Amino acid sequence: MNAMIEQLGVYAPLIINVVKAVIFLVVGYILAGLVSSIVRKRLARIKSVDPTIGNFFASLARWLILVFVFIAVLQLFGFQATSLVAVLGAASLAIGLALQGTLSDVASGVMLIIFRPYKLGDYIDVSGTAGTVKNIDLFVTELATPDNVQIIMPNSKAWGSTVSNYSAHATRRVDLVFGIDYGDDMDKAMGIILDLANADDRVMKDPEPWTRVTNLGDSSVDLSVRLWCASEDYWDLKFAFLKAVKETFDAKGISIPYPHQVEIQRQS
Fold first, then answer.
1. 117-165 adopts what CATH topology?
2. What CA–CA distance (Å, rounded) separates 182 from 216?
3. Could you tell me if 150 and 115 are in contact, meaning their C-beta atoms sit under 8 angstroms apart?
4. Residue-range domain boundaries for the chain
5. Mean pLDDT within 2-26
6. Which residues pair with 142 in a beta bridge?
7. CA 147, CA 132: separation in Å to the nearest integer?
8. Gap between the Cα atoms of 31 and 64, Å rounded
9. Which is nearest to 59 in space by CA: 151, 114, 141, 131?
10. DSSP letters along the chain, please?
11. Which CATH number fits domain 171-252: 3.30.70.100, 1.10.10.10, 1.10.150.170, 3.50.50.60?
């Protein structure tokens, strides 16, 4: 019994420190979440602050608190802050090499916030990876594809690649090509296209709708069409205009040619 009590006396400080460490970690994790939420909400109230910046600083506050909690837990087990800093300084090269990708993501995240090539809600394409920006934090940018698939992209990839931002400007141009039969009246077909464009309220008057003969194909005369609209109307206008032109061409006797295949059978 005495031996057991002595062993408990030996391990008691360690057990107490483990309990304290668990409490510190739990409280620190909860506190980090609360502070992050407060920072995000406070910055969201400021109209001049973009939500992207609010999310970034909320994430930064969370990670800073977690780092301080981690250092405090280490101190419970006898690691002094000064000694820890000295050890980290001595091991900085190894740590830097090990965390090269992570540190690059953080640095890229800072650059994305400063220069803001995109913001929350923008539809972007980063070297073939496309989606709507849902979140930007210290390490990654979160995208959602049109079919609602989540994409987590490292900030270093976004900063180091060519970014196409389809939401950067208030207007976009819809480019379409319609092929008509060589025997059809080109002016009539172009007139139909312009009439449909002018009748659609989503099509801007300045720049005005544009259509020209741009190619003489193997089986069709190709008419290119350019329509300017508000960025948010781009897809709706494109799909609706394709349907409207096809229906009107059919009604007006304008044919849209398509490739034909002739099958020849040999009889032995």
1. SH3 type barrels. (2.30.30)
2. 9
3. no
4. 2-90, 117-165, 171-252
5. 71
6. 135, 152
7. 11
8. 11
9. 141
10. -HHHHHHHHHHHHHHHHHHHHHHHHHHHHHHHHHHHHHHHHHHHT-TTS-HHHHHHHHHHHHHHHHHHHHHHHHHHTT--HHHHHHHHHHTHHHHHHHTHHHHHHHHHHHHHHHH-S--TT-EEEETTEEEEEEEE-SSEEEEE-TT--EEEEEHHHHHHS-EEETTSSSEEEEEEEEEE-TTS-HHHHHHHHHHHHHH-TTS-SSSPPEEEEEEE-SS-EEEEEEEEEEGGGHHHHHHHHHHHHHHHHHHHT---------------
11. 3.30.70.100
Which residue is associated with the tokens 């003969």?
A: 213
pLDDT higher than 90, residue 29? no
The model carries a pTM of: 0.65
pLDDT computed for residue 49 by the predictor: 67
CATH number assigned to the domain with residue range 2-90, chosen from the 4 options 1.10.287.1260, 2.120.10.30, 1.10.287.110, 3.20.20.370: 1.10.287.1260
